[in-house]
Amino acid sequence: MHHFPFLYHFISGAVGSTASVSLAIILGTFFLEDPTTIIVGVLAADGIIPVPIAMLSLYAGIVVGDIGLYCLGWLASTSPRLARYVNHDFTAPFRTWLETRYILTIFSARFIPGARLPTYTSSGFFRSPLSTFVFVAITATSIWTTLLFSASYWFGSLTSAWMGPLRWGIALAFLLVLFFVGRHNILAHRARKEDAGTDDDTRAP
């Protein structure tokens, strides 16, 4: 979260040129998606960045970043050292789990901070259908980014007269809440999986 001020100055410093600010937003999403979306939403509420430029740049950067994670996983699967794990017994349970819940997993990862990197790279590593991945990623992005941007825009409009440190401190606190809620969801999901596995082992003859 200490990167938040850097992102703010990086994006706000590019204001003045449509191409520059759009590029700054896209690069910001490559670095940290949710903080960039919140910062851009507040700046748009202040009238510093036009809403259409803000939204299109966010969508473009996030979708391209998602596809980049998929491609990163796919490239990893071409490595001689790692390729043997694509169809290895060690990774078979996770691959089966991903394939049987592919659309839901890709979609839900967008809403859980910290889940996108392992989920999207795993999709590429196991050669999951790219067309399905892109469609689901775009759909999830259009929902989550629109909601987060809208909330940030509303927050920016509400706090337009507030002092800078107080304003961005509250925005940072909101990000921390998102992080810990996402972390809690992941840990709870893992615990349920472990409990289900324990139950299966208990019932096994």
Give a structural overview:
- This protein is mainly alpha-helical and 205 residues long.
- The chain has one domain.
- Helix content is 80%, strand content 0%.
- The protein is built from 10 helices and no strands.
- The longest helix has 40 residues, at 164-203.
- The radius of gyration is 19 Å and the shape is elongated.
- The N and C termini lie far apart (49 Å).
- Residues 198-205 have low confidence and may be disordered.
Topology as a string of helices (H) and strands (E):
HHHHHHHHHH
Calculate the mean pLDDT score and round it: 80
Helical fraction: over 70%
Report the sheet-strand fraction. Answer: under 5%
| Count of DSSP-assigned helices | 10
Main pleated-sheet profile: none
How many strands? Answer: 0
Indicate the structural class.
mainly alpha
Q: Topology of this structure?
A:
Layout (H helix, E strand, L loop, with lengths): L3 H9 L5 H14 L1 H13 L5 H27 L2 H4 L8 H9 L1 H8 L6 H10 L4 H29 L5 H40 L2
Observed structural traits:
205 residues, 10 helices, disordered C terminus, mainly alpha
